[in-house]
Amino acid sequence: MKTLFIWATISLSTFCLSVNAQTVATIGLDTIQFGSSNSEPSSPERAGELAGAIAKKIRNDLSATRKFKVLTYLQATEALAEHGLSVESVTDPANAEILYDTPSIDYVLRTKVVDYDPQSEQAEVELKLVSTSHSLSDHVVSSNVDLSETGADRAASVAAIASAVVSETVASVFPMRVMNQTEDGLVIINYGQGYLGQGDKLKVFSPVAAPNNGAVEIGPVAGNEIAEIEIVSSNEKFSSGKIVQGQQEIGLGYKAKLL
Question: C-alpha 73: how far from its chain's center?
Fold first, then answer.
């Protein structure tokens, strides 16, 4: 395979950082909530144990992307307390000006697990991303989680739920983007082996606004699905994929989302 020298800069005015930066945002985790009495574990101890396992997996998986610095609930509480705030108070409009001047944390991620039953084949997660300093604010996303293959394996269920949360967080805060397309058709993506691996499939979307020198509109993934990519290899910072469906030529900066 040819040696690739990729020089591509994608404008990210939200963060004012290069895509090559190791960390693009600091995310503080709020406590995990359960959406209804039907989805709560059978006891407070069980709920705490399950919530802790989900939070730990989310933290580890987000950190593994190498794009985010992730703070536990206690760490986020300490960071906001320096400014007289709490994790719970970040949604109060009265604190907007204070939050804007809070450099130690960029987002608070709140996760609610809805209608989860260990014996069920499906769960729903709802996440809310609250920005302390950027344009994304109170961004709410829901995602269905397929648990049909996890059975009674709690660790597998936890991993599936956390994976859905991480996928939606990545797509909302710092989406995967097309960095380059080689002469032999491989598509280079700006996430590496900490998040993507061989066999993973991505949807690629056309931008709502036309790219300008590789730049696309900031914010969450949006637009029309134009192609599907399967990852064939990953290194520390980037991944390469082949187009398996749809448009065969993809523009620089187009956003992608993990299937």
Answer: 18
Phi, psi (deg, nearest 5) at residue 200: -65, 145
Cβ 147 vs Cβ 160: under 8 Å? yes
Other C-beta atoms lying within 10 Å of the C-beta of residue 118: 16
d(CA 173, CA 148): 29
Nearest to 117, CA basis, from 154, 166, 159: 154
From residue 66, give the alpha-carbon distance in Å to each of 19, 176, 206, 220, 247. Answer: 11, 13, 25, 19, 29
Q: Yes or no: say if 105 and 26 are a contact pair by the CB < 8 Å rule.
A: yes
Which residues on adjacent β-strands are paired with residue 229?
Answer: 202, 243
* pLDDT one-digit tens code per residue, 234-253: 999 999 999 999 998 898 88
Helix/strand/coil percentages in the chain, nearest 5: 25, 30, 45
Beta-bridge mates of residue 123: 145
The number of residues making up the chain comes to 259
How many other C-beta atoms lie within 10 A of the C-beta of residue 112? 19
**pLDDT at residue 150, as a whole number:** 80
Q: What gap in Å lies between CA 178 and CA 255, rounded to an integer? A: 6
Find the angle CA(171)-CA(53)-CA(90) to the nearest 5 degrees: 55
| pTM score, whole prediction | 0.81
Instruction: Look up tokens 């058709």; give the residue.
Output: 185
**Using CB atoms within 10 A of its CB, is residue 23 exposed (0-12), middle (13-18) or buried (19+)?**
middle
Q: What does the block give as tokens for 92?
A: 């109060």
